[in-house]
User: Fold this.
Amino acid sequence: MDNTTSGFMWFLSVAVREIELGILEERVLCQLSHYMPKYDNGEFNDLNPEERQSVDRDVEFVKHNVKIIPEDILHIDEG
Assistant:
């Protein structure tokens, strides 16, 4: 898994597009379950102000449209 800021931004943009089209794939949802908690915890803090504004907008869009279950809880539930 690519734990870089660019990896997060790429999956976030894919998720936004798939949500807009109504075709959010399970693999993208799983990636969001990995990346979103990391973003919420400040792990991707190397964004410039313009990137931060865009990412924050996309994160809010995703959170408004999809229930994100953190990856560690997902794995516990899968047993």
In short: The first helix runs from residue 5 to 21. Helices lie at 5-21, 26-40, 49-65, 71-78.
